[in-house]
Amino acid sequence: MDIPPLAGKIAVLSLGALPLSFALNYVSVLSYPLGVVLMSTLILGLLSLAIYSLSRSDIYYDPLYAVFAVFAFTSVVDLLIALQEDGYMAGFMAFYTKEGEPYLRTAHGVFICYWDGIVHYLLYLAMTGAIRKRKSYRNLGLYWLGSFMMSILVFLPGNILGKYSSEIRPTFFLTIPFVLIPCWAGLRIFTQTRVPTCCTPNMVEEVQGKGLLRRPVDLALVICLVFAAFFTLFRGLMLVNMFYVLPFYGLAIYALIFPGCSWLPDWALVFAGAIGQAQFSHMGASMHLRTPFTYRVPEDAWASFFVCNLLYALGPHLLAFRCLWRPAFFLCPPLGPPTHHEKQH
């Protein structure tokens, strides 16, 4: 998979979040929740107009260019929030976590912001760069889609049912477009043309004729996914994993045994993004000082906790890499020549 060059124009525009957030931190009207939501809406509106005026041809080519450009700006904001909450900087986004989204002050909220500010930000720059170069970004988009939707699946219940459920601010309603727009973006990404493979019908027939025991890499992946499924059952309290990840592991094992499951490469990328985001946030929050002591991983268990959860996150990424590396086994089997009986009729 070719990684497209990062979009320099979007990087420069998104970094404007630094001076802007620093200046807004000293605006008195932002000491009220309504002022925060109105100012946030105004900034996002002006940002969208600026992106449209600067990159009109790219937006006409692919409207997702504007979506990724706006989200790149918000990713920088999230990174500033995380760095401020951990004490690495001051004077930037204190007004927003106080009057906008208090949930982001939790350990899990901080690590959601770190992931969005680093991983998602790089993905946005890469995808907008691909659009500018008129190249495919489908694989990157699928990984981003899984990662983003997983963060939303945790973020929304955390706001509504968690510690800060009684402190929901008007800015919470800004999450509505941040839920609907990725759904629309995901549909567009799935319907994009797949990158053509160099697999000939003979190669597909030869690979798909091999049993699992003759494919040691796939056998190792099946064993890895079986252990991951048991690990998911062991952590049954994480309901998102139980309802979504566990069924996927079962389907992925099936697709590694029986050929022609063409859906697996796409969904492997989606679930790799989802598991990567979930594990990063879970591991970081479990060892963060803002997590209550009774729920925090003891320091003497950090090594085993880190290794187990890192291996758990690595499994779906290895599966996605295997699907992209040699996709012949997952392609639809070639149609064979008609039989002698068929020729007579």
UniProtKB/TrEMBL annotation:
<feature type="transmembrane region" description="Helical">
    <location>
        <begin position="243"/>
        <end position="261"/>
    </location>
</feature>
<comment type="similarity">
    <text>Belongs to the TM6SF family.</text>
</comment>
<dbReference type="InterPro" id="IPR047195">
    <property type="entry name" value="TM6SF1-like"/>
</dbReference>
<feature type="domain" description="EXPERA">
    <location>
        <begin position="177"/>
        <end position="320"/>
    </location>
</feature>
<dbReference type="InterPro" id="IPR033118">
    <property type="entry name" value="EXPERA"/>
</dbReference>
<feature type="transmembrane region" description="Helical">
    <location>
        <begin position="64"/>
        <end position="83"/>
    </location>
</feature>
<keyword id="KW-0472">Membrane</keyword>
<feature type="transmembrane region" description="Helical">
    <location>
        <begin position="301"/>
        <end position="321"/>
    </location>
</feature>
<dbReference type="Pfam" id="PF05241">
    <property type="entry name" value="EBP"/>
</dbReference>
<feature type="transmembrane region" description="Helical">
    <location>
        <begin position="168"/>
        <end position="187"/>
    </location>
</feature>
<dbReference type="GO" id="GO:0055088">
    <property type="term" value="P:lipid homeostasis"/>
</dbReference>
<feature type="transmembrane region" description="Helical">
    <location>
        <begin position="268"/>
        <end position="289"/>
    </location>
</feature>
<dbReference type="Pfam" id="PF26083">
    <property type="entry name" value="TM_Tm6sf2"/>
</dbReference>
<protein>
    <submittedName>
        <fullName>Transmembrane 6 superfamily member 2</fullName>
    </submittedName>
</protein>
<feature type="transmembrane region" description="Helical">
    <location>
        <begin position="219"/>
        <end position="237"/>
    </location>
</feature>
<feature type="transmembrane region" description="Helical">
    <location>
        <begin position="137"/>
        <end position="156"/>
    </location>
</feature>
<feature type="transmembrane region" description="Helical">
    <location>
        <begin position="103"/>
        <end position="125"/>
    </location>
</feature>
<keyword id="KW-1133">Transmembrane helix</keyword>
<dbReference type="GO" id="GO:0005789">
    <property type="term" value="C:endoplasmic reticulum membrane"/>
</dbReference>
<keyword id="KW-0677">Repeat</keyword>
<dbReference type="InterPro" id="IPR059044">
    <property type="entry name" value="TM_Tm6sf1/2"/>
</dbReference>
<keyword id="KW-0812">Transmembrane</keyword>
<feature type="transmembrane region" description="Helical">
    <location>
        <begin position="33"/>
        <end position="52"/>
    </location>
</feature>
<dbReference type="GO" id="GO:0019216">
    <property type="term" value="P:regulation of lipid metabolic process"/>
</dbReference>
<feature type="domain" description="EXPERA">
    <location>
        <begin position="61"/>
        <end position="186"/>
    </location>
</feature>
<dbReference type="GO" id="GO:0033116">
    <property type="term" value="C:endoplasmic reticulum-Golgi intermediate compartment membrane"/>
</dbReference>
